[in-house]
């Protein structure tokens, strides 16, 4: 059902008798679709701009997350949670990054099955080299599209959504 039809639906503002959610208003649907477009297009563009550095967005995210950890290491299960990846997908990702010399896996003392992903010196150097270009891209394609008041308003609007979604992750 399109937005025009949904906005004409007399039941749209309230849930129906079976408890189904109301249709989005035209403005809500515009917001939702703009959000989807921005999310997809921005991630695609930022990923394209990381390619000349030999990195994908997931690689860059893992490098950043590990760089912010004490000793630049994190348990694989925690890294999977932090990067919203399945353990299997992360394992494949880390294997590719190990082959590139960006990370290594180390055993966890006291837990024979546990593994750490550890940022190598080469991974740290790569991040240091790539980060300025990535930040310029984020600024050019996203941050600089807004004035200071819009940046503050967007943060105020999006932070509660992010917090809500983070809280759901803990529920399994």
Observed structural traits:
7 helices; 172 residues; 61% helix; mainly alpha; 3-stranded antiparallel sheet; Arc Repressor Mutant, subunit A
* The top level CATH class name of one domain: Mainly Alpha
CATH superfamily of one domain: Winged helix-like DNA-binding domain superfamily/Winged helix DNA-binding domain
CATH topology of one domain: Arc Repressor Mutant, subunit A
CATH architecture of one domain: Orthogonal Bundle
Distance linking N and C termini:
32 Å
Description:
The protein is mainly alpha-helical and 172 residues long. The protein has a domain at 24-141: Orthogonal Bundle (Arc Repressor Mutant, subunit A), CATH 1.10.10. It has seven helices and three strands; from the N terminus they run αααβααββαα. A three-stranded antiparallel sheet has the order 1-3-2.
Concise overview:
This protein is mainly alpha-helical and 172 residues long. Helices cover 61% and strands 10% of the residues. The radius of gyration is 21 Å and the shape is globular.
